[in-house]
Amino acid sequence: MKRVYSFLCLLFVFAYLLPCEIRAEEMQKGLRIQEVFQRYGKKKNVTMVELSNEMLDAYNMKHYKSITIKDDPEALRFIRRCLEADQVGARKIKEITDAGGLISAYYQMPGEQKDINRFVLFKVNQKGVITLVYIEGELDSDDLITVLFNK
Amino acid sequence: MKIDQLINDYFEGRTSCEEERQLRLYFASDGVREDLRKYKPLFAYFEEEIASAAEAEEEKAARRTVPRKRRTLWYYPVAAAVACVLLLLGWRTFADRSTRFCGENYVVVNGRCYTDIHKIRSFAKEALEEVSNTDDMLGLKPDDRHEKQGIVEDQLKEFDFLLEKE
Prior knowledge:
heterodimer; A: alpha+beta; six-stranded antiparallel sheet; globular; B: mainly alpha; 7 helices
C-alpha cells in the first residue's frame, strides 16, 4: 500500500511539473539567443534586463530581455553564431556587416502563439560593446520602431 | 563391565564417536545401573544438545527447500523511470528559470541582481538606445552626418538632367 502511494505521488509531481516546463520554454522556443542570456547573464561586465507583463502592457509587449556585454570577443563570436542560426526563416528588417562580421541586425520572427511577434535586435559598437535585445508581443515592426525612437 | 570400561575411556578422552554414542544410548535408556545414575545428567545434556542441533539443521533444510513466492515488482522499474524523467524535467525547468532568478522584472549588473523599478527602466532604455543608434557604427559623428548628407544631395543633383529629359 505504501509503495502504491509513493508511486501515485511520483505521478502527481510529474503531472504538475510538465506544464511548467512547457510554459518556461514557450517564450524563446527554438531561439539560440536564449543561450546567450543563460551563459553570460550573470558574468562580470555584463548587464542583463528582463521585463514581463504589467511593466510592458503600455507598449503592447509581453516580454523584454536585453543584455549588454563589454570587452568579450568570445561572446561576440558566440552571439554571431546564435544569430546566424536564428535568422533562418526570419524577416530581416536590417542587417549591417563589415569585414569582421555582423555588426548590427534587426530580425522579426513569428511567435509560437497567433498574433505574437518576436524581435531580435543586435549591435556591436566601435568600442566593442555588444547589445542584444529580445522583444515579444503583439506589436508589429512599425510599433517597435516607434518605441525605439520615442523612448 | 563393558560400560564401566567405556566410562573410564570416556573420561580419559579415549572413546570414539561410536563408543560415545553407545554411552549416550545407555544413559538415555531406563536400565541404567544404580551406581552409574550420577552420570546420567551428563550424557542426557549431551543428548539434548545433539537433538536440538539436529532439529535446527532440519528446520534450516526445510526453509531452503520451500520455494519463495515471486512477487510481481513491476512498479519498481516504472517508478525508477518516472523518477528519472522527473529529475530531467526538474533540472531543465530550473536551469531555464535560472535567468529569472530575481523574479519577473529585474536587472543584473556584474552578477548582482536589482529589482528597483527605476534602475531597471534606466538600463532597459540604455540598451534600446544603443541598438537604435547606428551612427557610431558607420563611423559617423553627429556633425559628420550632415556633411555626408550634403555630399549625397549634391551627387543626386548631378542626375537631375535625366529626370528633366523625361
